[in-house]
Amino acid sequence: MIFIELMNNHFSDWERLLDFKYFKLLKSKNELKNLDVAFVEGAISTFKEEKRLKEIRKNSKKLVAIGSCAVNGSPSNQRNFFNDSTKQEIKMILDNFGHRDKVSQLDEIVEVDDNVPGCPMDEGKFLQILNKYLKEFKVM
Amino acid sequence: MHEDFKISIDGLSKIEGHASLDVKVRNGKVEDVKLKISENKRFYTQAIRGKQFQTVPQLVSRICGTCSVAHLTCCTEAVEKALEIEPSEQTIMLRKLMMYGTMIRDHAMHLYLFSLPDVLGKDSVLEFDERQHELVHQAFDVKRAGNDLTKLIGGRAIHPPFAQIGNFSRIPEKSETKKVIKEMKSVRSHIFDLVKIFYDCEFSFRRKNTFVALTTDDFSFLEGVIKSSHRLIIPEQFYWDHLHRVIIPYSQATGYEFEGRDFMVGSLARMNLNRERLHKNTRNDLAKYIRAFPSENVYHNNLAQAIEIMHSIDHSIEILEGSNFKKEPQVKFKIKEGKGVGVIEAPRGTLYYAIDLDNQGKIIYGNLVIPTAQNQIRMENDIKKLVANNMGKNKEFIQNEIEKLIRAYDPCMTCATHFLKVRWL
Asked: How crowded is residue B350: how many other Cβ atoms within 10 Å of its Cβ?
């Protein structure tokens, strides 16, 4: 979401420099193959997401965790810290929808190359990392 | 006709969050439609229990990046009602402005980036041709103006830190205020183009509908009474009594009925129920377009949003030009046991928070009702009718029509739990 907001000021450049392969918020024809860099937000709560994250990792040269939930799990991981009675209360939903025992940050499941922490994510750090990869992949 | 087919859309695009859809047609009849909001539950209602009241509005703000200001503002109102805190006139004014900034940004995102590609027959703004490119620049100008307004008041466009229980920790600076007024005036002209596009758009889907919205005297999304299209008038604190919570086993979000039937909240509802309260400049300049309401055409939700952007700009300019914000003392209050209800109009519709506090100011119970969750049953029933209306047409066409219709609702799956995937079974 912050990425969409950063576009307010950077769209003209990015449109020229970046090829958006997978961006569901903006387009319906998406392909998750041979990505140079994947920016992933959110924490991992379900087995399906875990599988998906591994698939993204396999298809990307670099993977960057963006935002607090991806970097350190919080606040999406708040159920990890529930007491037993509250855990019992939500158990049925967890079972019905294929949730894992605990919510994990990305680097607990796959190798993460860079982190952009913060809620909302730190814009300066994001731009710095994006520029780093633009140079590394010889886009600029 | 003996037509059998299944449609399954797994991961609807250009909406906020994740959802999927299963449609089953047998012997030319729609047998089943399942709209599955697959965004994960993050258990905010459980997580806020036991937390100190001051910390909770900023925590629930994290339910959604897009709608953060709405959650923050509504939860703050509920806590204030529980503690019998009365914010100053200036604070209320600042909150209205912060919500206007959110409306401008959020509606602009939905209209330009999610819906406009449907109207122009493109997959995304990234594919717009040179002529259409001007609209992309306008999109980002309008979004930026909304963000700058929220930032002026709250210190940041998303999860604004200056908003507190009782007041704002800082007030806007004069020089910054002037800049925002200028920016608002400069993007205003873009909205005429936007309104015209959605007025001229011939998309249409109609089904008898109940509309519900919080109606306010100045169309400001904050304080008022809840009205329905069958003329009910409900004080904010009793809204829950008129809702029926429906557990939808295949969706991670809860659905709602209003007075026993499906209903719609959001811009279209607000425009149908309260358009005479729009800002006078908006009413003057957009009179022709406002006459499209009342309307039962779901696609007019887009037109309604465009008109609301204009209103948000016009009322913000008026407030900011007449403002002389002063640093105010911290509101004094005693921590006590109490119950409070906050209801506001979020960009996508009526948002309800109920908070119970114990005598230490800790949350005993919290309940929230999200706009998209209220629209969920309605959306599903609409899709049933849409598929039935289009029987005989090819699957790809029907699938595209479904996606367009869902997009017109501007659902926020992140808020509703928090996803759409359509799988044709």
From this structure: 27
B275 closest CA partner among B298, B296, B297, B293: B293
Greatest extent of chain A over all pairs of C-alpha atoms, in Å: 55
Q: Which residues pair with A116 in a beta bridge?
A: A66
For chain B, domain boundaries: 5-41+376-402, 44-373
Within B39-196, strands assigned E span none
List the Cα angle B315/B136/B67 in 5-degree steps: 50
- Predicted local confidence at residue B423, as pLDDT: 37
CATH code assigned at A80: 3.40.50.700
Q: What does the radius of gyration of chain B's CA atoms come to, in whole angstroms?
A: 21
Place of tokens 């339910």: B63
Residue B133's CB is within 10 A of a number of other CB atoms, namely 13
Answer whether residue B21 shows pLDDT above 80: yes
Tens-digit pLDDT profile for residues B290-325: 999 999 999 999 999 999 999 999 999 999 999 999
Q: Tell me the residue range of the domain where A89 lies.
A: 2-136
Pairing mode, strands A60-66 and A35-41: parallel
Query: What local confidence, expressed as pLDDT, does residue B420 receive?
Result: 29
Contact in structure between B374 and B258 (CB atoms under 8 Å): yes
Which stretches within B211-359 are classed as H helix? 267-274, 280-285, 287-290, 300-321
Residues of chain A in contact with residue B157, where contact means CB-CB under 8 angstroms, are 5
Asked whether the beta carbons of residue A11 and residue B11 sit closer than 8 angstroms, the reply is: no
Beta strands in B80-184 (DSSP E): none
- How many Cβ pairs within 8 Å bridge chains A and B? 95
Rg (chain A; Cα; Å): 17
How far does CA A100 lie from the centroid of its chain?
18
For chain B, what percent of residues have pLDDT higher than 90?
A: 83
As assigned by CATH, the class of the B44-373 domain is mainly alpha
Cis peptide before B57 (omega within 30 of 0): no
Strand partners, B34: B22
| Residue B351: how many other CB atoms lie within 10 Å | 27
Buried b (16+ CB within 10 A) or exposed e, A92-115: eebeebebeeebbbbbebbebbbb
B126/A29 CB distance under 8 A: no
B41: pLDDT confidence band, cut at 50, 70 and 90? confident
A47 — contact with chain B (CB < 8 Å)? no
Contacts of B62 in chain A (CB under 8 A): 75, 119
Report how many domains make up chain A: 1
pLDDT tens, position by position, A100-133: 999 999 999 999 999 999 999 999 999 999 999 9
Q: Is B22 on the interface with A (CB under 8 A)?
A: no
Inspect the interface and report whether the beta carbons of A79 and B140 lie closer than 8 Å: no
Q: Which pair of tokens denotes residue B218?
A: 């100045």
Of B73, B78, B65, which Cα lies nearest the Cα of B99?
B73
The DSSP 8-state label assigned to residue B330 in this structure reads P
CA-based angle B246:B213:B235, to the nearest 5? 90
Q: What whole-number distance in Å separates Cα of residue B30 and Cα of residue B388?
A: 6
What are the distances in angstroms from CA B117 to CA A97, A108, B123, B270? 33, 38, 6, 25
